[in-house]
Design goal:
By secondary structure, this protein is an all-alpha fold. It has one domain. The protein is built from four helices and no strands. The protein has helices at 2-5, 11-35, 48-130, 148-152. Helix 2 packs antiparallel against helix 3. The longest helix has 83 residues, at 48-130. The radius of gyration is 42 Å and the shape is rod-shaped. The model has no long low-confidence stretch (mean pLDDT 78).
Length: 153
């Protein structure tokens, strides 16, 4: 039973419809080539009703076989189309989930980057205040240690 869980959907149906199509097509071809219901048959018995019944039976059998061919072909085609559409839908769903994961990872990366920058700025301000690296006009000196007051002049 575990082996059937790994079988793709519509696989069994495709096998059934495909094999039924092949078998019924072979049956129709065999009936057309070997029984020839439309050709007159030499009747040894002088009963014309028996001949008509035999021809009618062969025509009905051939008609049912042709109908079986068409139905199994339609079943095989429909299961193939359903399987193809399901695969396309699953592919689109997986692609969408992948895009969502990429966007979530990018968002998380940006949040971490912002947190890192904020933490770095807090550490820098704390360092500058504790070491009293300030200019005469009470501005904190930037990292390059250039006095902002000198730039104004």
């Amino acid at each position: 039973m575990d082996k059937l869980k790994n079988v793709p959907p519509y696989f069994i149906e495709k096998i059934v419809f495909g094999s039924m199509f092949v078998i019924s097509t072979m049956l129709v071809l065999w009936m057309l080539f070997f029984s020839s219901p439309f050709e007159p048959v030499a009747n040894t018995a002088d009963d014309p009703a028996n001949t008509v019944l035999q021809i009618t039976t062969e025509v009905i059998t051939l008609g049912i076989a042709c109908l079986t061919v068409l139905i199994t072909l339609a079943g095989f085609v429909s299961t193939t189309v359903l399987d193809w559409r399901r695969d396309t839908r699953e592919t689109d769903t997986h692609e969408l989930k992948h895009r969502i994961r990429v966007l979530q990872l990018e968002r998380e990366r940006l949040l971490i980057e912002n947190e890192r920058i904020l933490l770095q700025n807090e550490r820098l301000e704390k360092y500058l205040h504790t070491h009293k690296i300030i200019c005469p006009c009470n501005h904190l000196l930037p990292i390059s240690l250039v006095d902002p007051c000198e730039e104004k002049e």
